[in-house]
Amino acid sequence: MKIAISGKGGTGKTTAASVLAIIFEKKKRVFLIDADPDANLQATFGIEGEITPLVELREIIKERTGAEPGKPSIIFKLNPKVDDIPERFFKKKGNILLGIMGTVRGGGLGCTCPENAFLKALLRHLILQRQDIVILDMEAGIEHLGRGTAEGIDWLIVMCEPSGKSVDTAYRTEKLSKNLNIRNIGVIGNKISNEKEKSFLEEKLKNFNILGFIPYYEKLKEAEIEGIPPWEKVPEILQEFEGILKKMEVKDGKRSTDKKFFPGKPDKPLKCGSMIATELQDILFGTPEPVVGEVDFGVLKEDYVNIIVHGHEPLLSEMIVVAAEDPEMIKLAKEKGAKGINIAGICCTANEILMRHGIPLLGNFLNQELAITTGAIEVMAVDIQCIMQSLPVVASCYHTQIITTSDKAKIPGAIHVEFTEENALEKAKEVVKMAIESEKNGVDYLDVNIGPARKDGPQLMEWIINTIREVSNLPLSLDTTNVEAMKIGLEMEGDKAIINSIQATEERMNQLLPLATQFKCKLIALLVGKEGMPRDENERGALAAEFVAKIDEYGIEHSKVYFDPIVLPVRFQQEQVVSPLEFMKMFKDLFPDFNSTCGLSNVSNGAPENLRPLLNRTYLIMLEKYGMDSAIVDAFDTELINFAKGENKKIKELIWKALEEEIDISSLNEDEIKYVKTVKVLKGDTIYSDSWLNL
After folding, report:
1. What's the rounded Cα separation, in Å, for the pair 127 and 152?
2. Could you tell me the pLDDT band of residue 441, with boundaries at 50, 70 and 90?
3. 3-state SS, residue 180
4. Beta strand pairing call for 498-503 and 476-480
5. Which among 475, 512, 480, 473 is positioned nearest to 494, based on CA atoms?
């Protein structure tokens, strides 16, 4: 029997795990695993001595995975040897062996991939290969379980107390469990004081398999305070759980653990399933043959539409390859000025298309964000698993669009295109068309932001610029607080570069303005002072004046300076959206020889995804009205790009008119009404709400 116990914190997971272990140990050896970061099982059993958390076995992890914990590593073993770990590092008491998984402590410890690979391999070994009882005391979710491991769990028990939050956790856990194909999911109502509380859970959890209800025992709290096992204070709790176990063992008239997934091989259902899936996949998409492939960032092509497929489901990658080879798609790409369509893969899906089609492999899981920073990718289409949630944030700094394709893995900020077996090719062509349309919208600069880069900053800057230069000749805007790294970047790029961004503080100006003088490059002056964000347009003007004095002191040409007044989200600080507009009204009078820019998408940050383009486009035209020279924009928003290029003059004139006077919307069409209402929000006449268009 393999059991995982989950639920909101404080619902009794540890008590349930310990009581079940005591019941089972009479019949069989029990491996009890404390996978909750707040590990309490050792204290519950009164086990003395130190138990080293498995994640802290640094030397063992390094030896078995080939990578040192806490340090980034691209190559390490995903299936390290772990069969000796339980006997060596679990603490034994009677017929129970207790292990503590542990967690990564604090920040700055680097990549945890080797540790995770080690822990997941250990869980796979215990759940899929051992014939012993395994009980896992999980945290609130079941994130420690991978798909294959989860399918080996006989029961997931969700502990639930009579509260709304606990019920919500049960439903979230159930949804994830179904996606992981866990066989049986049951709920135990715990800490039940009266019939009203029991009825509450029965009503709220009527769609669940309720295994039983455990009364509230005041003596359990006493046991915890005194540090003694719960069954010693409350012996009847053993009987409660024995009754629950009987219900778990018999389901639909037969024992749940006697399921035979494949006749004749009940002991190896998962292996058989993967073998059948492989055969079916070969039938559908072709049997792989030895091929010679290309690997790394050099597979990107400057004059092509670059599409990256990333994830695990072969349907997505296979269909995009087919769509990209369609003569209609190739013709469309050439009409837009590209030489053709270039496909590359990341992660496991990369292996699929490499083996079957010879499509090059851009990189692995760790390369997905770096790939976007090349600025050469039009679209990264993702499906499930190993997809970093940060991808849309990184992509917003470039012209790359992230497209999600599975309802199991939607990411805020990405465009979602639902893939099914029935519409796969049609949707694949849709993705390819989106990439083609975005490819030639173009950008003037690529923003290269390596952050603080406290360790090996100069080497990182040199590497990333060399990598970008393999695929793009666009000038670079360099952003880092590491001055030595900035020097390296400027030595490589010279006067073509932009220093982004210099804050209006003595330290930053004295560090970076001399570099702007030395390399004769452009710079972005960020109107943020030593006291933080300016409160209004007057403080913005004062900070700009301080900048001008320093700029003149260093003899920097005014035409090479771009002032950024700082735009903040309208959803959170509406007055900080109005203030940059007021600043721009006086900017050219005060600083006629200087330029201006801003991070445009900041204005819509946090707003509903379907409304962000409308906010961005409207604010761009409003800023242009008052003399804004440039902006960092989403190059995938073709309508916004058209605005920036001077098209859609009718809408532009309407927005400008709405800035100056009240407009009667009764004569306007639906699209025009949206822009007028958005102007009123952005200029502060209407208080922002997500439903401003309905007001």
Report:
1. 6
2. low
3. coil
4. parallel
5. 475
